[in-house]
Amino acid sequence: VVGLIPDSEIREHKGPPVMNDNERYVAVAGVKWVDEVLTDVPYDLTPEFVQRLLEKERIDFIVHGDDPCISKDGRDAYEDVKKAGKFVTIKRTEGVSSTDIVGRMLLCTTTHHMDKVERSTSLDDLSMELSEHDAGAAQTVVEAEGSAKPKNGTEQPFTRVSNFLPTTRRLIQFAGEARKPKPTDKVVYMDGSFDMFHCGHVETLKAAKEMGDFLLVGIHDDATVNARLGHNFPILNLHERTLSVLSCRYVDEVIIGAPPVITNDMIVSMNISHVCRKADPEDPEPTGYDVPKEMGIYHELRSDVEVTVKTILDRIVANRESFSKKHARKVLQEQSYFEQKEYVEEL
User: Fold this and answer.
1) Which stretch of DSSP H or E encloses residue 264?
2) Is the CB of residue 248 less than 8 Å from the CB of residue 341?
3) pLDDT tens digits, one per residue of 188-234
4) pLDDT at position 145, please?
5) Contacts for 265-270 with beta carbons within 8 Å, 24 or more apart?
6) CB neighbour class for 270 (10 Å; exposed up to 12, middle 13-18, buried from 19)
7) Are the C-beta atoms of residues 97 and 334 closer than 8 Å to each other?
8) Cis status of the peptide bond prior to 234, with omega within 30 of 0
């Protein structure tokens, strides 16, 4: 059971959310480990709400990662849960940080890419024209990151390079009990970048799965995505995007670093019955789909969800000052977390 904190609570305790209530609900409900989603959950879990969870919702334990969760008044948001003896700490996934991701968008870095040499980070690297006000806000982030360097003088990790550790065990964990398609199954193939995995991806993958029995998803590598979109895309690197897609309940299997051109050999080898792509008004004639089009198995899926990676970036830019100040604070908090970090055994 996952508790979803509403926009109003997020604004009060953390600042403006990047996605709204409904967008986050669809994204969370699409995760294959989630059985139920509770809405309107307070950020600060009061004794009254904890009692409701334990009695009405029949919750046995309330969990959070080993990183601190502090309310607006500086109080541990899980203090009352811990007093009730119902709190369990779970290991935070190594190298996955929303602070780092927001930093990549604010500073337009590409050091997180797995197959691209990074240029130095400066205000000149920003992929969009900044007004004097915006440049000042971005400079706040740069200065905050500079002040967050460890005492030994080495460069601090945030927005520089990805620290995600993609072990085989982690990939197996996210893949779950992978099943292979039966000879009679209709295999549906859908490829793309799947960057900043969001509700739009979930809805499109759901529609693709409904076209057949087995959904195979191809994830393009960082160089392919960057060559097509430019700037600092993708925001998430190949390993990060792979785990995001694997977590979706509608996905049966993924191809990591899928070829940008779908060939006849690939269609025959994977026994593909349908090839799907989300319709994109900005790219009405995509390359790489000539063979499935000639075979009559190519389909474009329409969606009412208007969220894209670019709309997410637009929201960050529109609230640049707020996100920059928030990010500057979080950089320091993250640095403190890593300096005091202790080993936590995985459950």
Assistant:
1) helix 264-269
2) no
3) 999 999 999 999 999 999 999 999 999 999 999 999 999 998 888 89
4) 41
5) 267/189, 267/291, 267/292, 267/295, 267/297, 270/187, 270/189, 270/216
6) middle
7) yes
8) yes
